[in-house]
Each structure stands twice: as C-alpha cells, then as structure tokens.
Amino acid sequence: MGKSISKLHSPHRTVSGDQHHEDRGVEPSAPEVSSAQKKQRAHSDSVASAVYCGTPWVLASGGADNTVVVSEWNREEQPRRLNGHSRAVTQVLWSLPLRHLFSCSRDKSIRMWDETVGSCLQAFQGHAMTVAGIATCQSTLVSGSRDGTLMTWSVDTGVCTNSAHVNRNVVTCIRAIKRCDGERREFVQASEDKMLRVWDVNSLKIELQLPRQQYIHTSCDATDDGTMLLCGSNGLDGHGCHATLWDRRMAGKAVEIAAHAHGVTDCRFLPKTSAFPEQLFVTSSLDSTIKVWSANHADKALASFALGAGGSVHGLDAIPGPGGVINIVAGTSQGDVLVLGLRSTSGDHRRCALTQLASL
C-alpha cells in the first residue's frame, strides 16, 4: 500500500497567494497526490458536503446521488455507501459530542448513522421542505429548512423538542458555536433573506441579528468561542462574491472581503495549530477555487487552490493533521472529494501553500 506521496500529473493545480484562474507568470507547483486517489470515485454526481469523522484519515461526504459515503483516504479499501435518502444529500455532519454521523437531504429528512456498519440509527422527520443545515450543540441536534423553520430534536427518540419560524428565513447554513459560557448554547445561521442570526439552542430565540446585506448568504461559521462570525455571499462576475467577518466584541463591526470571482459556496474558520497560531479561515467558490485567509489581515489570500478542469467547490471542513499541517476537505461539482493540506513554507504562517493530498 505505500504511504509515500508521489507527484503525478493532475487536472488540479496549486497556487500560492491571491490568484484566480490565470497564472500571472507564476508556474504552480505540482499537486501532491496520494495512491488512495486510485480507488473507485466516491460519488457519481456533485458532492454538496464533506467532513472529517474525528480523524484526519476518515471522511464522510454526501451529494446529488442521494448517498452518504465514508472513505479512508490513506488506505486502499473501497468506500462504504450509506443508502436511505431518496433525494440529494445537502449536508453531512460528524458530531464529536455524540460520536455519530448525521446527514440531511432534499427529501425533508435527517438521518443518524452508524458509519462503521452503514446502518441508519434514527430518522428525523418534520420539515416541510429541503433540510439545508444541521448542527449538534452538545447533545442537541438542530436543523434548519427552506421552509423557514428551525427545529431541535431528541437524538434518542427522533422527536422534535422545539421549533421556531421566521418569515422569509430560507435557511442556507447552520453551524454550532462550540464553546459558550455556562449553560448558554448557541448556533449561527445564514439565510436567503441576507441576514445572519445567532440563536440560543435552549429557547430557540434569536440572540443576535446582524444588519441585512446586499447579497444572499450561502454559508456561515463561528469561532469556537463565538466572538467572530463569518459568512459567504452569492454573486456574479466579482460583484457580491464576498466573505464577511463580524466581530461581536466590537458591536458587530464587519470586514467585507472581495474573496472570489463568482459566488462563495462555503466558508470555515480553520483550527489553530503550532504552525498556524493565528486565526485563519477558508472559502470555496463557484469560480473553481479554494482560498485561505487571515482573519487579522484579510486584504490578500495567503494561499489558493484551483480546479484545472473547472466546476465548483463546496462543502468545506478542516482538522489538524500531523506535523502542524491543517487538513482541508471539499466536494466538487464533478463528484470528487478533495483532500488538501495547508503547510507553512518557511516557518512563517503567512507564507504557506495549499496542496492536494488525494482525490476520491
């Protein structure tokens, strides 16, 4: 099985710095490709979401082929397919507190899986339209739908324990705020009504509602302590293709970054490591690129990765890898699941490169 990484020809290319499709005179380095990429492709259609299952080596992904797939990208075993959704999977979620894998779908349902054997442990049904986002806040499952409804669920019984509805709040994304003070539990939620909201899990009441922006929010995230919020926006030809940082400690002051040439599909804060002590975040786009940014100096991307064959990138997740590397996973509209590594190139975390480790 060999664990060495060889440099092979690939349709993907790696670019350092703030760069779109053109090379601007810089020859990109060859991507690093694992032998694991020779396995059967994980999905037969577009991949909407991909996550790490508690380890840098095990991935789960979901997409338009209605399946959830669990893969070990550094081994030669074929992926495990979890069947049960009748329509496209919109998100997959690995819950560290609950130690289970969850998925939601355009079939209006949520499922909890035993990913080791491929069985569905619990189904959650109650939304009237596509379930667009899920999160777990400690032991509570939260979901949001295009029907404008947020729900909390008992994981043991599959019963809805609370719900809230906001007119025109077409949910596009939900992310948990991992560390809150005392008994307070929160999550952040993005919407097509162009507003970012922070909710209290226990009461399902809005704790913070940020001013309406010009473009639809496609994604959102929060730092572990909830002090900084992030959202990505849809747009076209460079207009509205923003990532926006909000600082709750400074009365919601926003920093808007012209991140991509086309709409931002996802955004995530990256975990801090010994090699990257500063708060970084990553964005993906319809323009075929993934970019890494510093939250403190977001005027220029630190690193960028581009799909040479075109298509969109979405469904980001990240986890600390060996040696201070940050491993990033993403899905593509071509049906691939990409595993990338963010490495410091000179001991300075602001000089880094984003390289491909595998494509599943």
Describe this structure in words.
The chain has 360 residues and is an all-beta fold. 0% of the residues lie in helices and 50% in strands. It is built from no helices and 31 strands. It is globular, with a radius of gyration of 19 Å. The two termini are 16 Å apart.
**What's the mean pLDDT score?**
87
Query: Helix- and strand-based class?
Result: mainly beta
> Number of helix segments?
0
Largest β sheet strand count, sense and barrel closure: 5 strands, antiparallel
Strand count: 31
Approximate strand percentage? over 45%
Helical proportion? under 10%
- Low-pLDDT parts are 1-38
Morphology: globular
C-alpha-based Rg, rounded: 19 Å
In short:
This protein is 0% helix and 50% strand. It contains no helices and 31 strands. The strands form 8 sheets. The chain has a 5-stranded antiparallel β-sheet with strand order 2-27-26-25-24, with no helix packed on it.
Which helices and strands occur, and which strands form pairs?
Layout: E1 6-7, E2 12-16, E3 32-33, E4 47-52, E5 58-63, E6 68-72, E7 80-82, E8 89-95, E9 100-105, E10 109-114, E11 119-125, E12 131-137, E13 140-145, E14 149-153, E15 160-165, E16 171-177, E17 186-191, E18 197-200, E19 205-209, E20 217-222, E21 228-233, E22 242-247, E23 253-258, E24 264-269, E25 280-285, E26 289-294, E27 303-307, E28 313-320, E29 326-332, E30 337-344, E31 352-359
Antiparallel strand pairs: 1-3, 2-27, 4-5, 5-6, 6-7, 8-9, 9-10, 10-11, 12-13, 13-14, 14-15, 16-17, 17-18, 18-19, 20-21, 21-22, 22-23, 24-25, 25-26, 26-27, 28-29, 29-30, 30-31
